[in-house]
Specification:
The protein has a single domain, classed as Winged helix-like DNA-binding domain superfamily/Winged helix DNA-binding domain (Arc Repressor Mutant, subunit A). It has a 3-stranded antiparallel beta sheet, with no helix packed on it. Strands 1-2 form a two-stranded antiparallel ribbon. It has a two-stranded antiparallel ribbon with strand order 6-7. With 126 residues, the chain is an alpha+beta fold. It is built from 3 helices and 7 strands; from the N terminus they run E-E-E-E-E-H-H-H-E-E. 27% of the residues lie in helices and 19% in strands. The radius of gyration is 17 Å and the shape is globular. A hairpin with a 3-residue loop joins strand 6 (108-110) and strand 7. Helix 1 packs across helix 3 (87-100). It has helices at 51-62, 70-77, 87-100, and strands spanning 16-18, 25-27, 31-34, 39-42, 45-48, 108-110, 114-116.
Amino acid sequence: MRAAAPPRSPGASTVGFCCPLCGGVLRSDDFRFDVGSGAVIARGQCVVLPRREAAVLEALVSRRGRFVSRNDLYALVFDADDDIDMAVIESHVSKLRRKLRPLGVSILSERFKGYQMPPAAREAAP
């Protein structure tokens, strides 16, 4: 006996895939970020981020729609005892942008304000 397909909501994408984290079926336009594993799932693709990059993304996603300064990101990602150059935040954001761009996820920046995950967490379709 076959399992019944889950009902689709109006406007849902007809293309689905199996989530590597939960095994559930996701629409191709779903965005998921699992903090524990560092996995980002979007556009039918999955990227697992290193610990520090996942921490930066977590800080941005949890403050989605608001700018987060480089100093605030540093304080959220690193311990006060860590002797790490502040420029490492820019490096992590650069790596995140490169990994997340194919998934349709963007990180905005504005001089003197910081970095922002747009409210929709996706770039507009071209």
